[in-house]
């Protein structure tokens, strides 16, 4: 909520000329949901220190946002927006220091190109797990010295540990316009929460501020991506109100984005390829993808003429909508539409719509079920739907030790209820096959390690009379 | 002069096919004697699909529509009249099939009017201009049709051969089907397959309180005089004969009782085979018929004839007690109940067979009862089972007497099973029926292991006793399906989910958003005089199901190997992530219940409790850290810097900075209050002893819910349980308030103020009665009044600023309150159905409904 910029440039008060703000006055500008105050805590030739202080009314904030989006979960009524430096701070910079940000100074134009020594203090910056590294990666390439102070969550509960908030100190020498542009763009980049942009044009304005430095920034991709993430993300649907907060998706760690995530992605790709191959080999014409997610497998199934009827099932309606979008379902020709159908379904309720398929793909699904619900799943698939072939995959827990960043005893995804070793998986698969009249074969998915096997494992069930 | 008929008799549920050429007056006739909605006219259907009644090009579509509407009507049990020429066999054939599909009787009414009259009528109409040849052709088709109608499948054919005859018909008399005994309500004693076991049959009747005397044989009594107890009636499920020692005696007994009006009897497949034999038809004399034939050889021809007539007259099934009870030998699907067709009769006799035979050479039966969704209870026999068990409101009470099992009766409406053991094994069963006793779970529990998605998805209407029909919108069931599938526990545990609770109206006292005064005012306005104020604990809502032992879990919940109970959140999620901790916790509660003598006192081996489990931090750890503490941390850190810089600036004597500093100091103070507020509900949890459980409702125990007891009873009963384990369990402090007594109101307000100033969440005000009806119907079951400091964690740290309070006081409660009532009704309905041992899907439907309603958009701060 506070941005403090100081300089020891001589005369330091040049700063006030550049900022176009009188050093001996308290000035305020109006923001959409509050104000920003500008005042100098020091204004001498040796040191000039300007403060930009946000004064956001949290109640107004909620009210305003209720008008232009549907609504908020409770957590959003009690939020850190008024107290952090977020997109509001960028808006405040552009309002309070617009002339400087735009590189104008009618009275002393020669100051525009003046490189000054600056010290900047921001209270406070939100940065999720691993955020410290990101902050450094954002500011250090621009030539700043970065000093970070991380804050404790609650002094009364030291066992809760540190919060995600930092006070950031930057030291560096540059032109004021550059400094302000850096701050204007990078402060919101650090914020994984929703942005409060008024509209799309605000985004374009913002990207214009990156001119001259963003293009060469080593993290430019990440900056752009994180920046745009918040757009249009204000609506929450009925479902979100039900999902209790402790299972909300954790922001991905910064380090993870580079290593594990990439590894996981390529693994997923391999898994789908293998599953597709097995489905093709089975000779199936009518296939169902149980837990189809956003439809990656469906997309490859559609490309194969062999599959005449494809059904995608997922428990999440929102995911199905995304799948339809990604498959361009609504633009499909009638002939193509005839081949594919997407429905919301659950693997723990018996469902006649799943009867009579030649093959079913169940890719990385079972580990999302509680162990004691697995029996219902088995009955739904193997006793009632009874496809002739079932291709099923799940992670191999043993392999987790090769993911360096993973803590021991944790799972690959926060929603995984269990992960199995190779032995546990083959025991389960054997027992399922046995009690429902299937034969089963187990295959590794991904490159096999000598000791711990492949990262993922696949079981191919075939109805015994085949 | 020939006397013309003035009425036609037809079965109550029939498909009436009018047959007559164009202009014969079908529509006029139909309008005169049938209800408008009963008549489906081909002309109207043509108009509906093409805007033109006479558009012959639309004929195909029009008839598709006609058949579709008719099928919907027949499915729903409504008489339907087809107003079309229907002069061709091809036109009538699909209609006869339609009637068969819906097990109702096709009736033909022929309007045979001279061609000249028809022609004249058509000429008068400008829209009918087809040539004479068309009429002539129709008429010749009609003439040819009349004699074939019976053969085509029409059970009743009425030919009206002149305008006079048509005009003479004043009334269509609708007759009930023979199986309709809805007006007979019992009480009944329903008796399973006797198969000639006369001794057991008499013994069972006596055990049921009937007086059976053997008297001299005559054609009325057949040698038995039976007196029934208190107006009870016996219902025999058929298979009176074959295999057993004395089939003629059983026939005599049953015929005597039916004749004297104290019994009804439906036929079994064995009875029908005997009937065929007696009628001289060629039947194979085996499967026990050989014994019956042998036994009958001692009887007179006259008796055999009477038996033949008696069996012939038996009606396939009966519907009793306003449609609530159906009896049939082999059971009956919902869509066949109260209907008549060959298929119905065959189902009643043999059940549903797949056409295959099993390893014992017997037909494989489809378990229709597993799919049964009907409202009526169905009592049947036919398939011997070791024990009679309810499954989806159906029960097979053939317990294999003739095979050495027992003869069983079901008392209705008491639903009590009474049986007598077989004196010996009279016949060897072809298939060892006791094999089925393998599974340790009951049939219902086994079936309930897997719910069907059709029972939850889409738009649903749930009938509850408290609020009639509650509609669940599709978008809400979509959300509930995901949450239920991804996060909820085994649905067999989920016999209840709690309703949401509305706060009071906002207070007119300046510094308060909520205050007890408004809660009292609400109840008073509803005409409630006595309320209870309970301290509101700030933890997490938890529903507990606790059983006396694992056996009770199996018997009552049909769950194996999941411990002695469950503890779940308001969305049906397991409360604990750590199963060892969960077990230890449930064991402690179970022990407290045992020590307090709960099981004996309530004559139960399970209980469902509504509770608050503390501390809040135990369940909401991540919410606290990611949300509440985070806001506190960011605000404290930032405000410290802000105040520091403002203080430095203040020294520079700049205008306005003083005020600014003051307002930020105030913010800082509010943040301090805020962190203190949530801090009150947090303490470290290292083991079971750090938890506190505060139950506040005893929802249900075996055979009963406790909604009929008032809250004082709940509080006091719970107190006695808590005393058994004061370390874990807390009795909730409460006050009873008479709303007419101002001093009591004052004292309650004082108590609330004291509680909330100490950091308490506040209190809940409830009508003293669990379920209270007021002037405007059902009253809110509870209203919460939250404390001023507590509300900071709901409305934000700075909500207490006057300008903010002013905005916040303007809030609507309508949706929240309507939701609270609907969820309350659904929750209680779920419990009610569970204690009545209804199938799980019926319970689940309600619980699923609560979850679905919870996804409706309501301000979450309320």
TrEMBL record, chain A:
Name this protein carries in UniProt: Small RNA 2'-O-methyltransferase
Q: What is the required cofactor set for this protein? A: Mg(2+)
Domain Hen1 N-terminal residues, every copy = 1-242
Q: Which reaction does it catalyse?
A: small RNA 3'-end nucleotide + S-adenosyl-L-methionine = small RNA 3'-end 2'-O-methylnucleotide + S-adenosyl-L-homocysteine + H(+)
* Cross-referenced InterPro entries: 3'-RNA_MeTfrase_Hen1_bac, Hen1, Hen1_N, Hen1_N_sf, SAM-dependent_MTases_sf
What is the top EC class of this enzyme, as a single word?
transferase
> What organism does the UniProt record list as the source?
Marivirga lumbricoides
The record, for Pfam families, names:
Hen1_L, Methyltransf_23
Look up keyword Nucleus and say if it applies: no
The record's similarity note reads: Belongs to the methyltransferase superfamily. HEN1 family.
Which UniProt keyword terms apply here?
Answer: Magnesium, Metal-binding, Methyltransferase, RNA-binding, RNA-mediated gene silencing, S-adenosyl-L-methionine, Transferase
Q: Which NCBIfam families match?
A: bacter_Hen1
The catalytic activity of this protein is classed by the Enzyme Commission as 2.1.1.386
Coiled-coil annotation reads none
Automatic annotation (TrEMBL), chain B:
Top-level division of the source organism's lineage: Bacteria
- Name the InterPro entries on file: Ap4A_hydrolase (IPR050126), Calcineurin-like_PHP (IPR004843), Metallo-depent_PP-like (IPR029052), MPP_PrpE-like (IPR041780), P-loop_NTPase (IPR027417), PNKP_bac (IPR024028), PNKP_ligase_dom (IPR032380), Ser/Thr-sp_prot-phosphatase (IPR006186)
- List, for all copies, the residue spans of the domain called Calcineurin-like phosphoesterase: 187-387
**Keywords attached to this entry:** Kinase, Transferase
Positions of transmembrane segments: none
Q: Name one GO molecular function term.
A: kinase activity
* SUPFAM superfamilies reported for this sequence: DNA ligase/mRNA capping enzyme, catalytic domain, Metallo-dependent phosphatases, P-loop containing nucleoside triphosphate hydrolases
Q: Which NCBIfam families match?
A: bacter_Pnkp
Q: PANTHER family, per this entry? A: BIS(5'-NUCLEOSYL)-TETRAPHOSPHATASE PRPE [ASYMMETRICAL], METALLOPHOSPHOESTERASE
Q: In its UniProt entry, what is this protein called?
A: Polynucleotide kinase-phosphatase
Please report the organism this UniProt entry assigns to the protein. Marivirga lumbricoides
């Amino acid at each position: 909520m506070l941005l403090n910029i100081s300089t020891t440039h001589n005369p330091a008060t040049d700063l006030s000329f550049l900022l176009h703000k009188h050093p001996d006055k308290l000035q305020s500008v109006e923001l959409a949901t509050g104000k920003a105050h500008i005042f100098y805590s020091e204004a001498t030739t040796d040191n000039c220190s300007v403060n930009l202080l946000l004064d956001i009314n949290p109640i107004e904030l909620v009210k305003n946002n209720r008008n232009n989006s549907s609504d908020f979960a409770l957590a959003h009524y009690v939020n850190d927006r008024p107290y952090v430096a977020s997109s509001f701070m960028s808006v405040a910079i552009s309002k309070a220091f617009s002339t400087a940000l735009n590189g104008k100074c009618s009275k002393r134009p020669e100051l525009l190109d003046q490189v000054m020594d600056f010290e900047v203090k921001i209270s406070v910056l939100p940065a999720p797990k691993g955020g410290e590294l990101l902050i450094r990666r954002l500011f250090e390439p621009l030539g700043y010295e970065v000093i970070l102070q991380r804050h404790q969550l609650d002094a009364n509960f030291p066992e809760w540990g540190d919060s995600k908030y930092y006070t950031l100190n930057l030291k560096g020498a540059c032109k004021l316009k550059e400094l302000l542009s850096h701050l204007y763009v990078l402060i919101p980049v650090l914020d994984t929460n929703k942005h409060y942009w008024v509209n799309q044009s605000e985004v374009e304005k913002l990207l214009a501020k990156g001119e001259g430095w963003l293009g060469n920034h080593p993290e430019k991709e990440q900056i752009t991506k994180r920046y745009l993430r918040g757009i249009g993300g204000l609506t929450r649907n009925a479902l979100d109100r039900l999902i209790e907060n402790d299972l909300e998706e954790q922001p991905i760690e910064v380090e993870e984005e580079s290593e594990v995530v990439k590894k996981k992605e390529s693994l997923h790709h391999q898994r789908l390829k293998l599953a597709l191959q097995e489905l093709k080999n089975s000779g199936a014409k009518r296939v169902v993808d149980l837990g189809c997610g956003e439809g990656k497998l469906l997309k490859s199934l559609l490309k194969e003429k062999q599959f005449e009827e494809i059904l995608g099932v997922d428990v999440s309606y929102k995911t199905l909508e995304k799948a339809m979008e990604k498959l361009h379902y609504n633009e499909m020709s009638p002939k193509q539409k005839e081949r594919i159908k997407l429905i919301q379904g659950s693997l723990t309720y018996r469902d006649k719509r799943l009867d009579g398929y030649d093959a079913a793909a169940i890719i990385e699904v079972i580990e999302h079920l509680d162990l004691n619900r697995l029996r219902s799943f088995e009955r739904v698939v193997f006793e009632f739907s009874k496809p002739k072939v079932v291709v099923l995959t799940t992670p191999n827990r043993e392999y987790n030790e090769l993911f360096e960043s993973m803590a021991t005893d944790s799972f690959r995804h926060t929603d995984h209820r269990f992960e199995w070793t190779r032995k546990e998986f083959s025991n389960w698969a054997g027992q399922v096959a046995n009690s429902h009249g299937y034969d089963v074969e187990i295959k590794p998915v991904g490159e096999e390690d000598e000791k711990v096997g492949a990262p993922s494992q696949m079981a191919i069930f075939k109805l015994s009379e085949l | 002069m020939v006397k013309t008929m003035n009425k036609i008799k037809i079965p109550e549920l029939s498909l009436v096919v009018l047959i007559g050429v164009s202009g014969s007056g079908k529509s006029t006739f139909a309008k005169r004697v049938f209800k408008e909605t009963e008549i489906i006219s081909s002309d109207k259907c043509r108009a509906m699909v093409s805007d033109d009644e006479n558009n012959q090009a639309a004929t195909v579509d029009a008839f598709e529509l006609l058949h579709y509407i008719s099928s919907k009507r027949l499915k729903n049990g409504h008489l339907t009249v087809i107003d079309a020429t229907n002069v061709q066999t091809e036109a009538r054939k699909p209609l006869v099939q339609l009637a068969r599909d819906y097990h109702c009787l096709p009736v033909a009414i022929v309007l045979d009017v001279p061609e000249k009259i028809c022609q004249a009528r058509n000429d008068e109409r400008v829209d009918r201009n087809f040539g004479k040849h068309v009429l002539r052709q129709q008429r010749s088709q009609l003439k040819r049709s009349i004699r074939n109608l019976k053969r085509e499948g029409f059970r009743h054919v009425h030919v009206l051969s002149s305008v006079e005859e048509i005009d003479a018909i004043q009334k269509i008399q609708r007759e009930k089907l023979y199986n309709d005994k809805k007006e007979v309500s019992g009480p009944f004693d329903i008796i399973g397959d006797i198969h000639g076991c006369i001794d057991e049959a008499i013994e069972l009747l006596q055990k049921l309180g009937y007086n059976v005397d053997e008297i001299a044989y005559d054609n009325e009594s057949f040698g038995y005089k039976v007196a029934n107890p208190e107006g009870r009636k016996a219902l025999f499920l058929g298979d009176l004969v074959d295999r057993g020692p004395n089939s003629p005696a059983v026939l005599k007994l049953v015929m005597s009782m039916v004749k004297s009006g104290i019994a009804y009897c439906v036929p079994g497949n064995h009875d029908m085979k005997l009937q065929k034999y007696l009628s001289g038809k060629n039947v194979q004399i085996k499967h026990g018929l050989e014994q019956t034939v042998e036994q009958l050889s001692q009887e007179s021809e006259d008796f055999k004839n009477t038996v033949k007539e008696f069996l012939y007259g038996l009606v396939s099934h009966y519907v009793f007690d306003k449609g609530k009870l159906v009896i049939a030998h082999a059971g009956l699907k919902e869509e066949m109940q109260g209907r008549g067709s060959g298929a119905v009769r065959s189902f009643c006799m043999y059940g549903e067979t797949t056409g295959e035979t099993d390893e014992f050479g017997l037909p494989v039966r489809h378990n229709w009862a597993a799919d049964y969704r009907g409202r009526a209870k169905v009592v049947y026999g036919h398939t011997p089972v070791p024990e009679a068990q309810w499954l989806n409101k159906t029960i097979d009470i053939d317990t294999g007497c003739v095979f050495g099992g027992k003869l069983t009766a079901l008392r209705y409406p008491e639903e009590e099973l009474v049986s007598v053991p077989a004196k010996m094994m009279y016949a060897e069963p072809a298939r060892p029926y006791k094999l089925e006793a393998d599974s340790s779970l009951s049939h219902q529990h086994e079936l309930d292991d897997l719910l069907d998605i059709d029972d939850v998805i889409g738009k649903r209407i749930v009938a509850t006793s408290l609020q009639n029909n509650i509609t669940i919108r599709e978008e809400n069931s979509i959300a509930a399906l995901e949450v239920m599938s991804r996060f909820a526990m085994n649905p067999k545990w989920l016999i209840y989910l709690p309703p949401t609770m509305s706060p009071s109206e906002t207070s007119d006292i300046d510094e308060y958003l909520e205050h007890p005064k408004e809660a009292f005012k609400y109840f008073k306005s509803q005409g409630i005089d006595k309320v209870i104020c309970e301290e509101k604990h700030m933890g997490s809502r938890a529903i507990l199901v606790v059983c006396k032992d694992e056996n009770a879990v199996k018997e009552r919940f049909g769950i194996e190997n999941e411990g002695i109970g469950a503890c779940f959140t308001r969305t049906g999620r397991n409360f604990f992530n750590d199963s060892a901790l969960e077990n230890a916790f449930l064991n402690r509660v179970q022990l407290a219940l045992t020590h307090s003598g709960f099981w004996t006192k309530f004559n139960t081996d399970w209980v469902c409790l509504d509770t608050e489990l503390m501390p809040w931090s135990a369940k909401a750890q991540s919410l606290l850290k990611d949300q509440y503490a985070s806001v506190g941390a960011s605000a404290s850190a930032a405000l410290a810097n802000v105040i520091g810089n403002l203080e430095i600036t203040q020294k520079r004597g700049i205008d306005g900075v003083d005020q600014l500093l003051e307002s930020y100091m105030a913010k800082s103070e509010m943040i301090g209050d805020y962190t203190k507020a949530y801090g009150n509900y947090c303490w470290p949890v290292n083991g079971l002893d750090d938890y506190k459980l505060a139950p506040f409702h005893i929802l249900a125990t075996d055979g009963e819910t406790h909604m009929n007891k008032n809250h004082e009873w709940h509080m006091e009963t719970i107190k006695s349980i808590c005393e058994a384990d004061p370390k874990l369990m807390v009795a909730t402090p409460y006050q009873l308030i008479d709303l007419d007594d101002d001093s009591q109101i004052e004292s309650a307000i004082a108590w609330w103020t004291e509680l909330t100033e100490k950091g308490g969440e506040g209190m809940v005000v409830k009508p003293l009665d669990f379920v209270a009806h007021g002037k405007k119907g059902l009253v809110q079951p509870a209203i919460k009044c939250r404390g001023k400091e507590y509300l900071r964690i709901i409305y934000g740290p700075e909500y207490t600023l006057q300008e903010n309070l002013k905005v916040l006081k303007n809030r609507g409660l309508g949706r929240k309150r309507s939701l609270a009532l609907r969820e309350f009704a659904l929750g209680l309905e779920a419990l009610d159905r569970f204690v009545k041992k209804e199938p799980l899907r019926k319970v689940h439907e309600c619980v699923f409904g609560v979850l679905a309603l919870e996804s409706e958009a309501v301000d979450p701060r309320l």
